[in-house]
Specification:
- 2 copies of one chain form a homodimer.
- The two termini of chain A are 60 Å apart.
- The relative contact order of chain A is 0.03.
- By secondary structure, chain A is an all-alpha fold.
- Helices cover 74% and strands 0% of the residues of chain A.
- Among the domains of chain A are: 137 residues, Tetratricopeptide repeat domain (Serine Threonine Protein Phosphatase 5, Tetratricopeptide repeat, Alpha Horseshoe); 94 residues, Serine Threonine Protein Phosphatase 5, Tetratricopeptide repeat.
- Chain A is built from 25 helices and no strands.
- Chains A, B: One of its GO terms (biological process) is mRNA 3'-end processing.
- Chains A, B: Keywords: Nucleus, Repeat.
- Chains A, B: GO terms for molecular function: mRNA binding.
Chain lengths: 482, 482
């Protein structure tokens, strides 16, 4: 059960822990350690690391009595999650272990002392729970190290103090923001619940806070802190494209271009059906001039999840970065694709020929070609008609209006009404009085349930201009015009 | 008080009656008759006529004993309101008066008998209250006229019966419709109350019923019935342009073109500030080819109630019926008019040059001229930009976008945002990737409270096409996109 669950939710730390604890209960600590080891790369969670260290220490010390392996494990742990607000217990355990290490000579003693001081100095700059208690403990330790050299101890403490103070100040805000974050049962996708929305926002606020560098850390420390925060957030919300995109952008902003790409690629691995992340990746590649890579993204999309929108953006990309001919080839491919074709593709291809290539005739041909398949798509028909009307070629526009309205089989009554209304509007702005009246009458014949062509409401519509009406709003109410 | 009130509401029958009754109370019947005589042309109301007849009969018979004047008055009364559903009392009084007339010879007797029969025959075809009782009375009268010629009497009755039956059938529906009509205290304008709306509808239903000719009357009788119904309705709702327009159209439909025009002119006299009725009249004139008359309507409007909409339609009319030059002259006049000018006039003049005259350069010049005065009218600016964009001349369009956005003094922040959004949409469909990103960034700089240019929401908008989104609606909700 855990294997299957963790395949779906590899970042669910609590389930890795529960899985490992099953083996612990069976007294098979080695298996437990194996399980935890698999989970650790996915989950920057303090609890998971602490559990791992407990079992690893006990197994290792039992077999070899060599503490160097354990120390290395502790180092890996504090590297991974030593920035966590709850990492104080981990740090305490690390320090306790260091203190407990037997030393056999002066050299080893100095080495251990340096290790301890480094650990203290690192953790005392982390805004975490009970960091003030650790400070007291550290002061005492530093001062009692060499009673003959109290002055130096005080100097060291004094040098560290401002950085520690900054951490304590940052802790207050960090705690508030961290407390606002909820850890859901499963790291699932957004399902529309308000709770989830608030949780995402809470995470984003925490990330913003860390990125604002409240402790004024050097850039490398800041980078680590932000990276840790993103990673932890992504372990809880791995199916939220927002965070992947934000993390990618952050990499880009600090100049880590390959990190930017890798983050988006990891996001796509987690949420393979997210068009947003695919488009984001393709766009990044294209902006950096990596046309081949961008093209690969689009090719993959066309292969694995073809859709009209995918083909539309692939066509646009090809036109921008290759040639008109390349775009047309993709349009051809789209037309043959069962899931990748719709009126949208025809419409965009046509408009692109007109806008980018300034070729109105090709655009018209594409619209006409599309009309053969999509004369029942009122949105497509309206786009075509608007396109024609923008040419100021009234007679051609009228021909298409009439053609579309004459085709009895295509549009249903209510959709056809949209075309009629557009046609009447067209004549209001282009036609003469008798053309307008004739058209109003034709429409009224087909839709007798609407205002009659002889009604005052119809007159009011005819003489309206934009927000100017030939009557007051109260009169419009009486006439039944919105 | 009554004089002033009746000047405002000349069709308020109940106030004419109350006014006259004041004189009656003072025993000044002649004055009362004068007052009633003034009211009668405005009010086709049975009560008013009956009151008039009562006083007129008593005064006339007192002075001259000549009943011919009274009979003439009765004839005028039944001509005016003899179709009313409540006219039964009037008819009864008429018949009673006829019966009471002394005759001195056989010739006079025959004449009186014919008059009586004509009155009976007319009123028995009116769907009015108690018409069945009048029928019984008539049958008796006809049969007792000449006991020796009962056969002929029965023949006359039999000939009349189908028409009378039709009236009785129509009466049921007519009563229902007439009962639905409320007579308000004052014949005022529509003020937005539901009651008023229902009352208008009730009148329109009654009119429709009469126009449907339920009694299958000859066309002249039908015309009289419908005209009476319109007149009565207009005495109760004289400030409702709907009814004037409907009455005008009805005249037109039965071929009474001068009646159509006269009705609209009367309506304009009643509601001088109704643009709808003015436009309706101008349109009728123009449709009939009476260009001079149509022009007069527009000239009067420009003189007495100039407004942008008036000038817009005057310009359109001039272009249709005179020349481009005439339209331009009116545009010039509009520009100098304080109340008649607004961005709408510039916009319509420009579009008309483009659509009708196919002169894009003149259109551009007009838009540019308008921009000097109306750069703070976002709707105008957007119309201009849409016009430019439709030319497919991207660089010129961009120049105007930039010019408008650079003008700090004109648009307020929220209006300028509409221009920014339109500009970004424009680049989405025309620009290359870096132009799009740059523009998004510029907008985000000015409107930091909106989605950032680096946000996933912005990416989603960028990759949207019509109703196709690169994410589900639930994700859009999370991204805060409508």
């Amino acid at each position: 059960i855990y294997e299957r669950l963790l395949e779906v939710f590899p970042t669910s730390g609590r389930h890795w822990l529960a899985y490992a604890n099953q083996y612990v209960a069976d007294n098979d600590k080695k298996k437990a350690i194996e399980v935890l080891k698999r989970g650790l790369p996915h989950c920057p969670h303090v609890d998971l690391w602490r559990s791992y260290l407990t079992h690893f220490t006990s197994v290792t010390m039992q077999s070899t009595k060599d503490n160097s392996e354990v120390l290395k494990a502790f180092e890996r742990a504090v590297d991974a999650v030593g920035q966590d607000i709850s990492s104080n217990s981990l740090w305490s355990e690390y320090i306790a272990f260091l203190r407990s290490c037997k030393v056999s000579n002066q050299y080893e003693n100095t080495q251990r002392m340096n290790q301890l001081r480094r650990a203290y100095h690192r953790c005392l700059q982390v805004p975490m729970h009970s960091v003030d208690k650790l400070w007291t403990e550290y002061e005492q330790w530093e001062k009692t190290l060499d009673p003959n050299n109290l002055q130096m101890a005080e100097q060291i403490i004094r040098d560290l103090e401002p950085k520690h103070k900054a951490a304590r100040v940052a802790y207050k805000e960090r705690k508030k923001l961290r407390d606002a974050v909820q850890n859901p049962q499963f790291p699932g996708p957004y399902t529309g619940e308000n709770k989830e929305k608030q949780n995402l926002k809470a995470w984003q606020e925490l990330i913003s806070f860390e990125r604002s560098n409240p402790q004024k850390m050097p850039s490398e420390d800041l980078r680590k802190r932000v990276a840790f925060t993103f990673n932890q957030c992504l372990s809880y919300l791995p199916l939220y494209p927002e965070i992947w995109y934000e993390a990618g952008n952050w990499h880009g902003e600090i100049g880590d271009l390959s990190g930017e790409i890798k983050t988006l690629e990891k996001g796509i691995l987690m949420i393979p059906n997210s068009l947003l992340l695919h488009f984001a990746l393709a766009e990044k590649h294209e902006m950096r001039g990596n046309i081949t890579e961008a093209k690969n993204v689009y090719e993959n999309l066309c292969e694995l999840q073809p859709s009209p929108l995918v083909f539309i953006h692939y066509m646009r990309f090809a036109r921008r970065s290759e040639s008109v001919q390349a775009a047309r080839t993709i349009f051809k491919k789209a037309r043959k694709s069962a899931q990748g074709c719709s009126w949208h593709v025809y419409c965009d291809a046509a408009l692109r020929e007109y806008y980018s290539n300034k070729d109105a005739q090709v655009a018209r041909n594409i619209f006409e070609m599309g009309l053969k398949h999509y004369s029942c798509e009122v949105e497509f028909v309206l786009q075509y008609l608007d396109f024609l009307a923008s040419f100021n070629d009234d007679n051609n526009t009228r021909v298409v209006f009439e053609k579309v309205l004459a085709d009895e089989n295509s549009l249903d009554r209510q959709q056809a009404l949209l075309i009629w209304d557009r046609f009447v509007d067209f004549e209001y702005s282009r036609g003469d009085l008798s053309a307008i009246h004739k058209l109003e009458q034709r429409r009224a014949m087909i839709y007798p349930e609407r205002q009659g062509s002889q009604s005052l409401a119809q007159l009011a519509c005819r003489f309206r201009f934009s927000n100017l009406w030939p009557c007051s709003s109260i009169e419009r109410d009486l006439l039944g015009i919105q």
